[in-house]
Automatic annotation (TrEMBL):
Protein name (record): SAM-dependent methyltransferase
All residue ranges annotated as the Methyltransferase domain in the record: 49-131
Keywords noted in UniProt: Methyltransferase, Transferase
Molecular function GO labels: methyltransferase activity
The keyword Methyltransferase is assigned to this record: yes
Keyword Methyltransferase: yes
PANTHER family linked: TRANS-ACONITATE 2-METHYLTRANSFERASE (PTHR43861:SF1), TRANS-ACONITATE 2-METHYLTRANSFERASE-RELATED (PTHR43861)
Organism whose genome encodes this protein: Halochromatium glycolicum
Biological process according to GO: methylation
Superkingdom: Bacteria
Amino acid sequence: MRRRPEPELMDTAEQAHAYAETDFTEPNELFLHLLAERHPGELDGARALDLGCGPADIVLRFLRRYPRATCDALDGSQPMLDLAQADLEREPDLARRARLICDKLPSPRLETNAYDLILSNSLLHHLHDPQVLWRSLPTLGRSGATVLIMDLARPASSAAVAELVERYAQGASAVLRQDFHNSLFAAFEPAEVAQQLREAGLDAVLSVEMVSDRHLAVWGRLC
């Protein structure tokens, strides 16, 4: 099935609230489980960067789980970051260890070769040029930095898209159902991501695999 790109930013208040009010516990906990499974014992005290953080649910979960870690969180949508800020203000200890940055990649507001851990969930499928993400990793991460990027994987057919929307967004708002539908069409297949890694010269250090019926993950370490 051919890819259908969608807008790079979810920058309306309606989209931000629909996204923030939806329970993403299952995929977000899958993300953190993969992180702990692949890189045990290396995360507490890490200086982390979350690219495309949205309302920062993963940032909050990560900082709760690793009380000595810090996290810079980048997103191009101010409405998303406004929701993230409101949640952080309810947990002052986490707020002291988080920095929200409204910007897109490549961002001059991010330090170079500064991060021990680079995270991203559901950013890749929004990018019209995925190399913007892959080229940024060696610039932002320290030597040996851990990388975990998770995203939707494009299904094989429009019927498969409809089935996933019905299975996982049943009862969700119309806005969220439409966004999920569009995101599945905009997502990349694992083979396409593998080709992107080869083009970026990262295929020797990063691997891609399916981790659920609708998610792929890219993980490894930077040189």
